[in-house]
Amino acid sequence: MAQQPAPPTLPVPDEVGRLYDRYTDLGSATLGENLHFGYWDSPDSPVPLDEATDRLTDLMADRLHLGTGSRVLDLGCGTGRPALRIAGRTGADVTGISISHKQVERATALAADHGLTDRVRFERADAMNLPFADGSFDAVIALESIIHMPDRAQVLRQVARVLRPGGRLVLTDFFERAPIPDSGRPAVERYLREFMMTMVQAEDYPPLLRQAGLWFEELTDISEPTLRRTFIELSARISGSARQLAADYGGELVEQFNPGDMTDVREFGHLLVVAVRPGL
After folding, report:
1. Where is the Polyketide synthase-like methyltransferase domain (predicted)?
2. Which of 113, 52, 50, 62 is nearest to 90 (CA)?
3. Per residue, what are the HEC states of the chain?
4. Which of 2, 159, 171, 267 is least crowded, fewest Cβ atoms below 10 Å from its Cβ?
5. Where exactly are the structural domains of the chain?
6. Kind of pairing, strands 163-176 and 268-276?
């Protein structure tokens, strides 16, 4: 892969799990039950953050071509709201995995609250070594989760293995749209370090997918409708009660990183990737 501004060491799955064990309550107070970015049609859209995060889930799920009974793997399920939304909108059966014990517990409770435990289930698992048989799923979705995984190539090989022939993958990732200037590099490196993430170059994906046995279908820069507005909204939310919750559950994260620091780093990008496992 091309050189990138990244932490000095790659993310370690168990450490990422512990981070999100601690971050689950704080994240729910800021992003809500969706622990991913929002999607807005225009910079001045009145759509609130909670609805915008659902819109990104829908944008991705629509590319999976799901129907009643489709088997979906949510790779890095967070606290479960995307999986529940996908099941409710499409009739699919969804299995969500997370490396965080607390996220799996929260997601399982949420599925019970919605009466969907017959079609939506969650378990702790590592995407680097998926505990599922070959061809188990019709589709895989990964909402900003591959950013935490130390080897994207290994994850994509695992995804290709558990997808049936003709199955689809949709994911989002962080990438470097252009060389990050010195003025923005401290904020980007701090963001990656504090949340145990790495980023890629957009041109890395076609060969990564090809080597995993997947066919590249779409590569779209969704930075403009997602990143800046989400960072603004998060910066505003990390105040008052949210800041108190941060002090209780992960105050050092807020002290070291403010989402507002990323607002004008336009070179930091958000990438939508769609791929298919070849076959009938």
Report:
1. 43-277
2. 62
3. CCCCCCCCCCCCHHHHHHHHHHHHHHHHHHCCCCCCCCCCCCCCCCCCHHHHHHHHHHHHHHCCCCCCCCEEEEECCCCCHHHHHHHHHHCCEEEEEECCHHHHHHHHHHHHHCCCCCCEEEEECCHHHCCCCCCCEEEEEECCCHHHCCCHHHHHHHHHHHEEEEEEEEEEEEEECCCCCCCCHHHHHHHHHHCCCCCECHHHHHHHHHHHCCEEEEEEECHHHHHHHHHHHHHHHCCCHHHHHHHHHCHHHHHHCCHHHHCCCCCEEEEEEEEECCCC
4. 2
5. 13-276
6. antiparallel
What is the side-by-side order of every strand in the sheet holding 93-98? Answer: 120-124, 93-98, 71-75, 137-142, 163-176, 268-276, 215-221
Tell me whether residue 144 is one of the annotated catalytic residues: yes
Mean pLDDT of 103-128: 95
**Active-site annotation holder among 33, 144, 176, 233:** 144
Q: pLDDT per residue over 41-56, tens digit each?
A: 988 899 999 999 999 9
How much is the pTM?
0.89
Per the CB < 8 A criterion, the answer to whether 274 and 217 are in contact is yes
Give tens-digit pLDDT for 49-99: 999 999 999 999 999 999 999 999 999 998 999 999 999 999 999 999 999
CA distances from residue 214 to 30, 129, 277 in whole angstroms, order as listed: 35, 18, 5
